[in-house]
Protein: SusC/RagA family TonB-linked outer membrane protein
Amino acid sequence: MGLFCATPLLAQTGKTVTGTVKDHNHLLSGVVVTEEGTQNSVRTDANGYYALTLQHDDAKLIFEQLDFPIREEEVLNRSVINVSFTKEDDEIQLKDVVINAGYYAVKDKERTGSITRVTAKEIENQPVNSVLDALQGRVPGLEITPTSGTAGGGYTIRIRGQNSIAAGNNPLFIIDGVPFDTNSMGDTSTSAQIFYGSTINPLNYIDPQSIQSIEVLKDADATAIYGSRGANGVLLITTKKGKATKTSISIDASTTVINPTKFPKLLNTEQYLEIRKKAFANDGVTMYPTIAYDINGTWDQTRYTDWQKLLIGNTAFNHNIRTSINGGNEQTNFMIGANVMKESSVFYGNYAYNKFSFFSTLNHKTANNKLKLQWTTNYGQDKNYLPTQDLTRIARTLVPNAPRLFNEDGSLNWENNTWTNPLAALNASYRNNTRNLNTNLNTSYLLMDNIVLRSNVGYNRSDLDDIQLNPHTIRNPSFGATSQQSNMTKNSGQHEGWLIEPQLDANFNLTASSKLSVLIGGTLNSQTTTKLVIMASGFTDNQLMNVLSAAKNVTIYKDTEEQYKYAALYGRVNYNLHEKYFFNLTGRRDGSSRFGPNHRFANFGAIGAAWLFSKESFLREVSWLSFGKLRGSYGVTGNDQIGDYQYLNTYNISQNGYDGNILLTTARLYNPDFSWEKNKKLEFAIETAFLKNRINLTLNYYQNRSNNQLVGYSLPAITGFTSIQANLNAVVENKGWEMDLQVVPIKSAKFNWSTSFNLTIPKNRLVAFDGLENTSYANIYVIGKSLNSKKMYHLQEINPTTGLYEFTDYNGDGKITAIEDKQQVVSLDPSFYGGFSNSVSYENFNIELFFQFVKKKGFNEFYGTTMPGTMYNQPASVLNQFPNGVIQNYSSGSNSAATVAYSNFNNSDAMVTDTSFIRLKNVSLSYKLPLSKNQSNQYVIYAQGQNLWTWSKYKYGDPEQTTGFLPPLRRISIGFKANF
Structure:
């Protein structure tokens, strides 16, 4: 009760303050003017004018405008307050920017947690379809790797490393306050060959240009309020909102040219045939086999086809148009927008990726500013038409003197049944149709001058229908196949969820120099995921392959429904003393349906503190120090990203029972003690600014330890089961350093230059794992090494007598076997990564360059390839053969010793190479046309490029994608923007 009495409620004074807000003589509309400590606010109109009736005698006004620091003005006895946002040297106050921390907002200079913000400007300058592409290299501690360059493909996303051995490691995505499930609904039966890991990126539905900002929450203080859902970090995506201004229309139209960045150098026909001849000679074969068409004279030995250029080297185009309408008054305003995009493919054939998205926001508040409503909706639909498999591996392995593709009459050439024409595979097709809806209603009501009741109600739904059609025409017609051999696989997935979050905020001025903020709330979240996979064959006609009733055989391959229920209570207390000492305490009690009845609920929390040492009296006269803050945090969060029903007895349906009967077989054992993984996070950081905020430097040290790991534990054979999911005393540690440097060398009315540099030095290791040898992970992980390590053979040399590879026999038994001799442990984690940007503007011209860099090891060009000398093309580096080189004697495949040696070679440390790179990730050039004196009317022409240049020691294609799937593509775009 004492807290509520600490700040007496003051009667509204009735005094009205008016004024204008401008930037270098341009009047600014949409600037938010707020009476500090209240919900009392207005926006400037189209002429930059505002009028605000005050509630307190001792009021202070807060002026907020995107891309400018906050301005604070004491009212005192003034009735007219004019404000000018400037960009002069002494006005650079980056730390005054307010950032989104999820359930609350906080000034950057006052936050106690680790939060990095990416602005709309950084995102808009990139010609990409996915927001994840736009984030690569821009945030310390955030590692994003595309799994495929194919449009619609997925990504691997990690914030400060991999915390869990078996549970989910993806961060939590919150879009306009609503959790969004980023797990792919793709299925291996339909999409595994076109998308690596069947990962179809659900975030594709969001148009990157509709995003206002992205905040990345990393440490315990920032993420603990999200409980177990935020164990792996949180990404808060906020879309653009309406403003109180005269109605305006924005249009953005662009065209993009898309090409592969780099092709690896392969053998030409002469080189390839020379290796084939040597291979047969090494094997003692003097007469070439009848099926060796490439070398026995059946095929033209002078023919050469560049299969990379033909199959994956097309020039693709992207056509994109966006439009939005914004307007309204101070009480009610809105924004609606839409985006239509069509993109062709670099694959041979007529493929397309079509995308439509729509977003809208409606803001309303009552005349007395007590009730505020914000309704946001985002909808997107993607339609992707692709071949059933990524053609990259085919293009790199198809022999260079393979026959021509077409006969003279235009039909496919099968060269007298001596080869499989690669274009026949393109008769098969893959299509997916993805629909996503995300909507929420935010409500706030001012109960008292310092107490606000809020609620957030959200709903999202994602639907995926993807289908793979394999008509009989993918086969050689001489085989006599008919539509009875045609088959279809269809996957239908749906994810639906709702969220209810009530919240109460209270702010108290305890004394003239101390403030207390209290936040309490709750979360109810329900999610349902269904999947139905149907396989059909024996069609009466290929034209009816989409019609199940036209199939002779129909099998339900998979039919699942999973429900996830989540509930929580949370609270936050923030204490501000003298505006230089800040303490933040967060607690949350989580309940999850994913755990056994004995451990369904758990408590988590964090504490954070910050000291603005630059405000101390002994530093006030230090002119070169503009800002200085020390902060630290410690907390414990859980992790329930493990999938549903893991603790229950679950069953599989088998159709192989006696006499054709259907059987139920136990898939998983019941474990009532199935419990939360726990992640303990520690962080220390220093944030500084020098020379009137021209230089801003942040250094972070973090250490995260995740224990109570959920893994499969081996059981004795007498139980009838191989393993049980259980919590084991395994500890995974992620620690490292992060640096973020921002420098403003020049800041003036006409010429501006800013640069930034971020660096992350991570280290991941398995600290402990009791009973590791009794688990299914015994041959995968090593205590003291990274989870992203690989146990491999150690290549010693090439035997001078046999000309074949030899490997270290660690147990000395004279045999090379996986369990005993894969003792070489190689880490594939990056040693460091980051980004470097420069932005220069002169009057109406602006140019921005961004470089991404990664230091790491990866697999070389031989990993996953067939043995040199067989009927597959090879990297040109195979010419470096024994005795003068590092490649063992070629073999046609008939030498079993050579085959075994090459198989071991493919699983040895000889496969690991330096795949570090520096990439010119983005270049943006724009010019603002001087067509209007009205600041709100803008006309801009621009050119943008993505993935323009890469430097790397890795020469076999792109160093970021070494899995045999299509690598990231180069994109060059030109466009025009208008706002009027």
The domain at 123-268+304-379+386-397+422-431+440-602+640-646+674-788+828-864+906-979 is CATH 2.40.170 (Maltoporin; Chain A).
